[in-house]
Amino acid sequence: MDQLCIVTTGGTIDKVYFDDKSDFQVGEPQIGRILEELGVAFRFTVIPLVRKDSLHLTDDDRALIRQAILAQPARHVLITHGTDSMVQTARVLADVPDKTIVLTGALNPARFRGSDAEFNIGCAVGAVQTLPPGVYIAMNGRIWDPHKVRKNVEANRFEAL
């Protein structure tokens, strides 16, 4: 892998809890900080594209994500994304040629102790380097075909269709 292009779209992975508002808001992208702290041995660029909960992503947002990826020379792309509509975005990207694209996120914010964010990012980094061109989802220690997976909201995990 020459260089990893990381596109951030918001989602739980980047959420921050605001006590004064008693709610969560999408904060700054966390993946760059995480990769720097882990001392990764590859070059990466972070493109903070949108900062939304994935339930609020629109078709226009997905078109913007697609355009941004097509405009990048990097063949390896990792997208941080909210889990609720990750599958939908992955399907929009399914026909992007000559790139390995892996979407990942977290069920708990990266800033929280016990978050699955670092684990999911690690799985996604491994996947994006080793898989053939195509689009994949890296969640819960598994690599998924976006056409054969769904998020089980009640169990709070991804599972085969």
From TrEMBL:
Keyword match Ion transport: no
Molecular function GO labels: asparaginase activity
Keyword presence, Hydrolase: yes
Domain L-asparaginase N-terminal, chain residue ranges per copy: 4-159
Entry EC no(s): 3.5.1.1
Keywords carried by this UniProt record: Hydrolase
Taxonomic superkingdom: Bacteria
Signal peptide: none
Pfam families: Asparaginase
Protein name in the entry: Asparaginase domain-containing protein
Organism: Coralloluteibacterium thermophilum
